[in-house]
Design brief:
- The protein is an alpha+beta fold.
- A two-stranded antiparallel sheet has the order 1-2.
- The longest helix is centred in the middle third of the chain and has 14 residues.
Length: about 80
C-alpha cells in the first residue's frame, strides 16, 4: 500500500485514536435528541439551556425564540 499510513484506534496510544470520534458521538447524541417522540430540554447546573429539540419548541411556540443555548431558565419562564 503506497501513500499515507492508516492509523487505527489504539487505547494504549492516544495519539492513534481517531480525532473525529468526539464529533461523531456529539452528532449521534444530537440526532437522538431530535428524534425523541417527546419534547426534550436540557439545562446546565447554572440553569442555562444547553439543548432542546424541535418538539419542545413546537410545544411552546410563544417562547420558541427564547429557546437558544445559553438562555437562562428564569428568562424562559417569565
Amino acid at each position: 500500500m503506497q501513500g499515507r499510513a492508516r492509523m487505527t484506534p489504539d487505547a494504549a496510544n492516544p495519539a492513534a485514536v481517531d480525532a473525529t470520534a468526539p464529533l461523531a458521538v456529539a452528532t449521534q447524541v444530537s440526532e437522538a435528541i431530535e428524534n425523541l417522540l417527546d419534547g426534550f430540554a436540557l439545562f446546565d447546573a447554572d440553569g442555562r439551556l444547553v439543548v432542546c429539540n424541535q418538539r419542545y419548541r413546537d410545544a411552546y411556540p410563544l417562547i420558541a425564540d427564547l429557546l437558544a443555548p445559553g438562555t437562562p431558565i428564569a428568562e424562559i419562564l417569565r
